[in-house]
Amino acid sequence: MLKKILTYTFLAILAGYMLFAMVIIPNIPDRNKCKGVLITVENDESGNLSNDNIIELLDKEGLNPTGNILDSIRCTVIEKCINDISLVKECQVYKSTDRHIAIEIDCKVPILKVNDNTGNEYYIDSDGSMITGVHKALHLPVASGYISEEMQTTSLRDIACAIYGSSFWKAQTEQIHFDQQGNIIVVPRVGNHIIEFGKAENIAEKLEKLYTFYSKGLNTVGWDKYEKLNIEFNDKVICTKKEKNK
Questions:
Q1: Whether 183 contacts 199, CB under 8 Å
Q2: CA atoms of 76 and 70, how far apart (whole Å)
Q3: pLDDT value of position 224
C-alpha cells in the first residue's frame, strides 16, 4: 500500500514538474525579450525610407532585435547602422517600456539636385550635406557645371537655400550652372532668357531685384523680349535684347 502511495505521489510530482516545464518556464524569458520594432520616419520627401526598408536593413546586418533578450540589444549599434544611410539626418534608438525597440528617424530634406561636370549625381540638403540613394523623381532645380566638394557647404548651398526658401523662385528656377570661375547662370522655367547672376554673393538682394524687374518690367514688355538679364551689379538689371533674326 505504501509503495502505491509513493508511486502515485512520484507520478503527481512528475506531472506537475512537466506542466511547469512546458507552460511556466518558457514564458519566464519572454518577459525579457524584445516584442518588436516601432519605427517613426519624419521628413521623408524622397519616399525611400519606409518601415520595410529599415527592417530589411536590420535583417541584412543581423541587427533585428525582435525576439532577442532586451539586455543584449545594443541600441547604439543600431543607431550607427541607420545613421550611415545617406538620407538620414539623425536617428535615435531606445528601449520602450512595453519591451519594444523604438527607432526615430529624421530625414535630410533634399533642396537641390546636382549633376556636375565629372558625371556625379546627388542631392544636397540645407546644410550642404550630400544625399545619395534617392530613386524617386523630385521636382527640384538642378545645379550643373564646375562644382567642388567645398562649394556644397558654401556658394552652392547658399543659392540653393535662397531659391528653396522662396515659393516663387523654387517654381521658377530650372537650372543653376557654375562656370570654372564660380560665376552662375540661372535658367528659368518661364521666359526665353538666361540670368547672369555673377558670384554667389548678395543673393537675397539680387533675387529681390530680379523679382521686381519681373513684376514691373517683363509683365509689361513681355517675357520673351530679352535674351539675357544680368543682375551681377548693384541696383542694375542689364538687359540684352534678342536679335530680330533669332
A1: yes
A2: 13
A3: 85
